[in-house]
Amino acid sequence: MISNDEIKHLGWLSRLELTDEEIVRYALQIEEVIKYLNKLDSISLSEVEPVRLKKKISELRKDDVKPFEGDVLEVAKNRKNGYVKGPRMV
Amino acid sequence: MIDGIKIGLEIHCQLTSLQTKLFCSCHCDYHGKLPNTNVCPVCSGLPGTLPLLNQKALEYAGLISLALDCKIPNETTFYRKNYFYLDLPKNFQLTQYNVYGITSIGIDGKLEYDGIDEEKHARIRRVQLEEDPGRLVYENNDMDSSFYTLIDYNRAGVPLVEVVTEPDFTTPKDVRIFLNKFTSIVEHLEICDTKLEGSVRCDANISIGEGKRIEIKNVGSFREVEKALSYEITRQKTMSTHEIEIKAETRHWDDTRKITKQSRVKEEEQDYRYFQEPDIPTVILGNEFLSSLKTKMPELPNDRKNRFISDYKLSEHVSQVLIDNKWLADFFESAVKIYSSPKEIANWIVSDLMGFIDENNHHHNSQASMEEKRSELKVEARHIAELARLVDQSNISRNTAKMILNQIITTGEMPSQVVERTNSSKIDDKGLLSEAIESVFRSEKSAVSDARLNSKAANFLLGKLMQLTKGRADPKIALDLIKKKLIEPD
Amino acid sequence: MVNLCSLTAEQVVEGVKNNHFSAVEYISQILERIEKIESQINAFTIVDANGALKKALSIDKKIRDGEDEKKIGSLAGVAVGIKDNICTKGLKTTCASKILEDYVSPYDATVVKKLKESGAIIVGKLNLDEFAMGSTTEFSRYGATHNPWNINYVAGGSSGGSAASVAALECTVSIGSDTGGSVRCPASFCSVVGLKPTYGRVSRFGLISYANSLEQIGPMGKTVADTVMVMNSIAGMDDNDQTTLNNGAPKYTTQSKRNIRIGLVKELVEGIEPEVSKCIYSAMDVFSKSDCKCEETSMKSVEFALASYYTIAMAEASSNLARYDNIRYGFESNPDSYEWNAYFAKIRSNFGEEVKRRIITGTYVLSSEYYGKYYLKAQKVRTMLKQELSALYKIYDILIAPTMPVLPFKFGEKIDDPLKMYMIDIDTVVANLTGIPAISVPAGFSKGLPIGLQIMADELQEQTLFETASLFESTANVQRSPKL
Questions:
Q1: Measured in Å, how far apart are chain C's first and last C-alpha atoms?
Q2: pLDDT tens track for C467-480
Q3: Residue range C35-69, pLDDT digits in tens
Q4: Which one of A28, B414, C44, C354 is separated from B325 by 20 to 30 angstroms, measured CA to CA?
């Protein structure tokens, strides 16, 4: 059901570099898990609404500025002139 | 006109009038700040942080929805759009989505506009709130030669309203007209300062006849959208002529070369794995929200235009010109408050002031907005008001007034000051005029003889009098006196 | 000399405030204890001895100076351990992962801030399964935490360090997080008390998200009273978390109550290990003997609970963990010359295998072709469970069940079979899916290994929960700490 290619593709979608060994192992393990999750098929629940936490608009955050004290990105290991350095786009 | 052109728009509008970002209490205004100095743990996606929805953002988005005649839902919420990108601090964007009964802040609206040929309307598919990502910067502005990318998160989390239209446009000119109207609405709502850099962006999609849909992204301003679309139509037409298939793709607008080009970064059909953001509650809007929006709704451009026509008795054309730019309409009404002569004032603005602004334009960067150009000139509402008053009360002639305007544009003096300084008031004193006429009669003896025979020649003498008095003579009184003098015995 | 490590939080506060001993004295003993047995237990990822002593000194000074009660705090001097997925300013938060190896948060989680304000002394960060994904703490980068009752056995998870440290007297109370049982499971395995509050009762600001619609931060202690003390300090509305409940939290108490109507959910007892089953039925007896009406009852929709839980948890996890790309925080690595997609993939290959499995499965269930089949359906199961609970809570004040269907087991027993490992959460996930509060209290032993009783109340009925738990605790009188 869950092929090695599918695992590889899912790995790509979630940006996880997987070894060949991992792909094979995970495919088997995840297949078992998905089989179990398929239990959800045995119940219809078409009339049921999903759970939702609800609040009124007045309970949300007011538009008042509260700047953060300190350098938030101090933890970033690669900086240049204040920018955060990342890999190249192409 | 090419058949079968279908254009749809995706407009992004920053809610620059908000104080804070959409999901945190950082300043909404990031302009001019050093990189990564307008951030907090939430908007930079630090572990353990949670989004905190700004209630005013919902209100502003509601105002646009209402102004665009959209349906506003009873409840609304946010979704995660999951994808990886360097400018996304969380590698998902918080946005709205219309699925499973919950909708975004506005759906199924429409906006009417005066198309290039006829009255048209564009259907609004949806209005939604979402967060802006950060900005990517490249050394030497060259993406290709950089070994790394520089990221600034100052803009991350700034509130955006996205307005998506149906593909109802059939010509780029209509798109321009529509976008102007949209700008005017947004300005009148006072939720977005469209003159701020990056505050409004517009992507377009276009298909021609049976051809596939092309997306055009990276159009930096509304002004460029028409150009981009025109270019794209020509390009596609050329391809069709050579029987080259037009595939569905995304193209980027190159601002400098004024062309669209194939997207560098491969944009695959993405499955964004949308699901409702668990950290943000479903917000109950209800009737209360709708009525409060209606109360808060300011006068929209159309209504203002109609008011100008009915209350001030201005023409349709003049009214349209005024409301096309909110500041112009504001300028007009400020002037009218000072001196109530709406037609006169409107005339001065539309005929004369605008002319000066355009002329001034040639000396400056044409990218500057009209208001920027106007502010380079020193004239304010009170100047125009006084000018109108002086003309009305016949203190100065219209010609003189034009000359005065020319002056005060650079000096910023009040018209009355100029008048006093150059003694430009009309000469209507009969005694003074008679003296001047005597002088003309003495120097134009042959013309006087002619005029005695042919009364039409009196105008020539009037002309000479105007020359002598530097245009200040009251022409009516002067002509009267001249005619009288002509029939006097010598 | 009394071993100060074995005191309850109540006793510590009383002792420190009344000068029976100083905070420094007490903390020193705690730190000594940690040094002595940590090599056997491995409950901590970091011990902050300096910080702890510094805070102890300041507490002592405040008391000497006769400062106001409020300034000294309700938890004055109490040694607390914080699960290492909860942000502490200045002290690393690693989530037991290479991905956050060096991460130091620039802000304190709300619960940390509140604990500090109440005078508690943070002695260190506690071990967990990587990113809170697991039930045995075997998935920690820093090695598994050992069960103080028998160090060859697992301590439970994901808050293994939080439970073991309390049981082993390395700290007096601790804080964990509970997404599918991660506080209650180790509490049960280590014979301590562990609470998962009503969803939204305690702020999640600063809790590094695994599954945000399911999890809550929860206190652990040797006694119900200690757990309540910590709960009183950390509960409440938080502007930094819009999922917290608007009404303020009441101050909870622990008087024992009688005449409680109790239902034992039989579906949660079916198929469990017989020793555990025996212990749970004995618990029923304890209640019946205490003037409580205690009987078996049924909750049919439980059948779908585990499938619903893992669908939602993995889906949310796959998205919550997307941000770990090493750009803004993480570990040492130079991005120069890498193409960004390749860089992300390489960096993220440093997640442990259980985390990777869950991200992949979560991505699968969220994909558009499967969204309705799994995620949406799972969310509807939650409604179904809530409806059934609503009906049950009209008849019963409290529902009970085993916390775990099994006794603590040896290391490595379930680690190669993910599904087998997931199945042990079967009793705890109901409370997370429905948001109701649930507590695990020590109920007995078998072969020297602890068994916990799970007590569940309706939404926001923590007070009833505590009263029931107190009643059981005082009547059953089960041993809390092993001899070490």
A1: 17
A2: 999 999 999 888 87
A3: 999 999 999 999 999 999 999 999 999 999 998 88
A4: B414
Residues A57, B284: C-beta atoms closer than 8 Å = yes
* Structural domain that includes position C371: 1-484
Amino acid at B122: A
Rounded to an integer, what distance in angstroms lies between the CA atom of residue B111 and that of residue B164? 12
| Residues near B378 by beta carbon (within 8 Å), at least 6 away in sequence | B408, B409, B410, B411, B412
What digits encode the pLDDT tens for the residues B388-431?
988 888 777 787 888 888 888 877 888 888 877 776 667 777 88
β-strand B249-254 against B214-217: which pairing, if any?
parallel
On whether any CB of chain C is under 8 Å from the CB of A58, the answer is no
The whole-number average pLDDT for the span B458-471 is 83
Within 8 A of B82 by CB-CB distance, chain C residues are: 319, 322, 366
The pLDDT tens digits for A10-33 are 999 999 999 999 999 999 999 999
Residue found under tokens 């590698």: B91
Minimal CA separation from A28 to chain B, in Å? 24
Point out the residue among A10, A33, A60 whose CB comes nearest to the CB of C363: A10
Q: Does C341 touch chain B (CB under 8 A)?
A: yes
Instruction: Please state, in angstroms and rounded to a whole number, the distance separating the CA atoms of residues A70 and C90.
Output: 13
- Give residue B142's pLDDT: 77
CA B9/CA B393 separation, integer angstroms? 51
- Say yes or no to pLDDT of A36 above 50: yes
- Separation between Cα atoms, residue B327 and residue B255, nearest integer Å: 27
- Give the pLDDT score at B376: 67
Query: Which is nearest to A34 in space by CA: B273, C370, C434?
Result: C370
Q: Of C157, C360, B393, which Cα lies nearest the Cα of A4? A: C360
Residue C89 gets which letter from DSSP? Answer: B
Please give the radius of gyration of chain A, using alpha carbons only, rounded to the nearest integer: 23
Q: Which of 3.90.1150.10, 1.10.510.10, 1.10.20.60, 3.30.70.20 is the CATH number of A1-40?
A: 1.10.20.60
CB atoms within 10 A of CB C379: 24
Residue B314 token pair:
């201005």
Where are the alpha helices (H) located in B248-353, listed in sequence order? 286-296, 301-311, 316-324, 326-338, 342-347
> Cis before residue A3, ω within 30 degrees of 0?
no
Residues of chain C with pLDDT under 50: none
Tell me whether residues C360 and A11 touch, CB distance under 8 A.
Answer: yes
Catalytic residue selected from C118, C162, C182, C440: C182
8 Å CB contact between B381 and B335 = yes
pLDDT of amino acid B366: 42
Contact A74 C106 (CB under 8 A): yes
Tell me whether residues C325 and B84 touch, CB distance under 8 A: yes
Answer whether C108's CB lies under 8 Å from C88's CB: yes
Which run of H or of E encompasses B128? strand B119-131
* pLDDT of B269: 64
Domains (range + CATH), chain B:
5-290 (no CATH), 299-422 (no CATH), 430-487 (1.10.10)
ipTM score of complex: 0.96
Residue B153 has pLDDT above 90, yes or no: yes
Render pLDDT for B68-77 as a digit per residue (tens, 0 to 9): 999 999 999 9
B53: which chain A residues are within 8 Å (Cβ-Cβ)? 60-61
pLDDT tier for residue B365 given thresholds of 50, 70 and 90: very low
C393: domain CATH number?
3.90.1300.10
C182 belongs to the catalytic site:
yes
| B169 DSSP assignment | B
Q: What count of other Cβ atoms lies within 10 Å of the Cβ of residue C245?
A: 19
Quick one: pLDDT at residue C483?
74
Q: Do C340 and B149 touch (CB under 8 A)?
A: yes
For chain C, say whether A20 makes contact (Cβ under 8 Å). no
Domains identified in chain C, total number: 1
